[in-house]
Amino acid sequence: MEQPAAGLLTGPQETQVTHIEELQQPPPPPVVMDDQEHAVSLVTAVETPTEADVATPPPQEVNATVQTDLTVELPIQQSQSGPPEQLTNEAQEEDGEVAPEVAPAVPVEQAVAVDQEQAVQPVEVTVQEAAVDGVPAEQAVVADATVVIAAGGEAPAAVAPAIDAPADDEPVANPDAVEAPAADAPADGEAAEAAEAAEAADDAESDDDDDEDAAEATPEVFHRCDDAEWMTRKHIPLKGELEERTCVYHEWRIDDWAGLDRRTTSPEFVIGGYRWRLLVFPRGNNTTDQVAVYLDSAEPQGDDSWHVCAQFALIISNPDDPTVHFTNSSHHRFNNDESDWGFTKFFAIADLERARDSRGISILNNNRLVISTYVRVYKDPTGLLWQESNGYDSKASTGFVGLENQGATCYMNSMLQSLYFTNYFRKAVYDIATDEEEPSQSVALALQHVFYQLSISSKAVSTKDLTQSFGWDEVESFRQHDVQEFNRVLQDNLEQKMRGTKAEGAIQYLFGGKTRSFVKCLNVDYESSLTETFCDIQLNVKGCATLRDSFVDYVKVEALDGDNQYYAEGHGLQDAKKGVIFESLPPVLHLHLKRFEYSPERQAMVKINDRHEYPEKIDLAEFVADGEQKEKLGEDGYKYSIYGVLVHSGVMNRGHYFALLKPQVDGNWYRFNDDTVTQGTLADVLEDNYGSGDPEEDTEALALPERQAKRQKRVTNAYMLIYIQDSAVEEILKPVTAEEVPEKILKQLEEERKAQEAEKKAKEEALLCFDARVVSDNDFRAHNGFDLYNTASETTGKALRVKKKDNFASFKRTLAEDHGIPEDQLRVWTLVKRQNDTFRTDVPIPDTEAMTPMEAVREKYGTRTATDLKCYLEVPERPIKANNGRTSWFQNETYNGNIMIFVKFYDPFTTTMRGLGKLYVHKQTVVGDIVGRLNEMKGFPAHTSLKLFEEIKPSMIEPMKVKLTFHQCEIQGGDIIVFQKELTQKETEELEQRKLRATVPQYFDYIHNRLMVEFKPKTENDAHLPTFLVELSKKNTYDEIAAVASAKLEIDPLFVQFTSSSVGGVPKKVILKDTKLSLEEILSPGYVQGNEKTTLFYQKLDMSIVELETKRMFKVTWLSPTLKKESTHEMLLPKAGSIAEVIEELEKRVTLSPEGTGKIRMFSLYESKIQNEFDRDDPKSDHDDQNELFAEEIPKEEADKAENDKLLSCFHFSGECTKQYGIPFKIVVKEGELFSETKVRIRARLGMDKEEFEKVKFVIYDSSDRITPVKLDDKLSEATITENESLGLDHAEKKEKPKPQPANPEAEISITISG
């Protein structure tokens, strides 16, 4: 923004000032009531106005004739903690300058500046007088003064006086007026949880002890409102890490309060290069009992992007005693839309003349008072400070768009954005061939779509196709994963897809480097080394203050001596040194900072929030071994610059990821926080994410929002760093051109765009239209089931899209044209769903509704809960003649008792039922009177005997009494009557012999319970058997189902077993033979709906199912003498009996050692932990099928142990005792044996390679998680070992590559990408 012209109150560069010696002294002391001492006047000298001062624009809407301007500038302060900020309620006027209050008193807004101004030196004062609009000075009622507080030291914080606190009836802060989240705040539910968790963690760690001694009474202290040091500290303390531009105090003296207009503004004053004024409503703004006061920007309206951010305090005080005052404060982003901010309920009008405290002094004195303000203007380097999130446009503001969060996919979004801006990688992804693939099934194609959408979209891009291509369901999208593990799995998947394409080798080129691990003996000529590749580097944070320290730690050489000597093949145990060195480094470094580690003290994983500094540029040449690559790249070949920081904000169990990235070599930094992209600063990238360090700051004195911000910052730190080689950066970040985007992507996205437009159009139409379905007599005649028509079919009847504004006449005209019927020969009835879930005609829509809009017709005649309209189109069997221009239809039963009923006929010999048509009858007609008409409709002789039934609902088909009236039979309009010929005894017997349904109720029972069942083989062993479809009844018993299936398979019904199907179509539960069990009970009740198809799996048996159900399958893994899994045996044994039967059956299948003990030990494991060690007499029921069953021959050493020897359980683990794996075992602890000798026996027991075994460390571990390392010269026989203790073998060094450490290790589930 262009700077305003020089004038009043803009600082020493813009205003001539007179130095007042007295004001260079410390600020006036506060008034202490015990001494009855009043503060001296602040203004001690008056200066004649200069020519520049008079040039200031005249004040507007001011009754005053004289203004006095006093300028004293506050020092630019360092960010410090201050007391909590008290907010009041927002108000804005009706005319647009200030709007009506929304809730109990809230500041009108919150803001920050973009200009730069230098701090002024010691305290300076300028006092000026000038006539306004020629009004004589003696008529002056308003005086105006501004104080600019100059640079200098800060006074210590003072105790806030009681008079500055809001009164008991002051409204508390409205949540709507609380500061909007800053641009760097996490923007999703997981971030909010992180903040909450951070606060909870901090509260748990804080010292809650309170001093219970009562404080001694102290004199009441009253501070002056012009005591700048104290007032700014208390009411507008510096906010967090924001950089102050300037801070100014301005006061406006009013000498005729009662004479002010309803709305009055002060003379303009300049702060931070911006013009301001105070706005007051002395008799209330939309209230009658409260003074309203606002800070108003006087900048001219124009540039829509104009804004200034300021923190301010508004004060009303006694004109003669500045210690009598009331203050409220806020902050706001002043802009064209919200140019004022303040308080509608600032101060009660009735309290202006009441004493503020025990001194008996009021604020209003002889119709005079002072309204003043402190304004602190902040710099806004990103242009987003206190920007409302609503309406924020990432694309317009930054040129980039974000990614939608599917629930907990922030980790994925952060990594994808970093890969997208690694342009070389993006080009390689585009080069993957995906011509015959679909986005939801191909990871490569879905990623190509995401990358291209990021380059062209104007809004956040969805990743749903991408996660679907991973094979993830919705639950997986709500599961937090580790960002580094995700990156590794994704790159592995893409690397496979790149093989054989132009992109092959791209990932290794970009991210792949090499390390060489070595062990070199000091006293003999022996060295062992292993070269490995990597795509990221894990670096320690704990104990490392800087990134260089972490690299030093990574390549640190370890001495192997003493108890930790190295076993060198052919040389035995030797002193050696062990280390790792980089042989090559890639162009792009992904550095994973290990912020999650296991804490032995807490016996759990914890997050490391220690401060860890990383530079903007780093030279890693010292960590690379001399060799061909180093010589080729030269001395500057390992210089890197930072281009990305992936940040984790939160605690161990919960958190949020966002990314800070620099897309271009000489470009800006940006914060990618899921769907929001904002500009960042270098401070955001470096200082703000180094970590908090220890000890933690004491935040208890801060206001709640600032305390939350501090706590959140302590758990927000860098988790992954992205550095790019300076010599390769031009190649890596070379822009991607349109020609490099595959043509298939462009075509697919164009198709998607068209589909989205069609969907959008359909949604827009849905707001203007509704669906209607019209059923005719043809639909009724074609239907052979319940109801008037097949209600489950979407093709029955005529589907129409009806405009809500069209009238009923046009709707009826459309139906006439569609059916080829004159309009006067049809009538439209509404169809409604009755309480018994059947659809019946309700009422005809009268022609009087001809001009009524269809939306009103639907609401009046349709079902209230339905959004569509279902209708029946009535057409007379013979044309109806018009009478006086109107068609004479029968009247509804409401008028004269006439009703329309529907008729169906059932033929038991063909087992068919069809609708015949409709009848018009009177409710008092006897049912038997329609028999002749029914015979006529069907073409039967007139005296044919019929049986009539009422179709009430599927399970209720009632015979009708022909001697009763329709009214007595409770028949109403729209009901359905089904009839059939009355059968002779012979006809009935014939139908029974043919197993046909002789009566209408039998037929309805059949169609109600029929179910198509697909029988499929259950196991691969039966894959040669057929899959077949059979129609069954839900009432069929188990034996009937078995008989049908066995007949198809041509086997005995007792030699087939059934298994139910899950919703996903896989075998679910074995069905036990039960002669009383029906098909409906066999199937899940909630799964079978209506007559849809279901599946039963079957399995051919080698024995009768009766015998099978008395047995149980035992699956036992047989272990070799060295505990290797040798074979697996499945044994079907009787359920009853002891474990001895299992062991005896196993003995028939395995070979025991000729020189062994011949005894078998059987035990069960769950997650490598022994659950049960069985005695032979234990019942089989003691074994739980969820546990694995193992067996081994008891070692001879164990069987022959001496009387004083003990057995000690042993287990394998890696790094942490809780992470057990493998097969646990037992060893004999021999009396007086050194552990070095015990180790030899353990190695023999396990059959391990000597070199590999030497890497194993041993500990004694008990159930209380106590760990005791074991040394070679220890004697286990001398240790106190209880049954709860065991020997742990730590194979920590067995892993070839370190796994990434998850952000939530306790809840971590491995990531799989299958597409």
TrEMBL record:
| Group of enzyme by EC | hydrolase
Molecular function as annotated in GO: cysteine-type deubiquitinase activity
Where is there biased composition of kind Polar residues?
A: 76-90
Q: What is its EC number?
A: 3.4.19.12
Question: Single GO cellular component annotation?
Answer: nucleus
Pfam families linked: MATH_2, UCH, USP7_C2, USP7_ICP0_bdg
Q: Which CDD domains match?
A: peptidase_C19C (cd02659)
Keywords on record? Hydrolase, Protease, Thiol protease, Ubl conjugation pathway
InterPro entries from the xrefs?
MATH/TRAF_dom, Papain-like_cys_pep_sf, Peptidase_C19, Peptidase_C19_UCH, TRAF-like, USP, USP7_ICP0-binding_dom, USP_C
Protein name (database record): ubiquitinyl hydrolase 1
Q: Which organism is it from?
A: Linnemannia schmuckeri
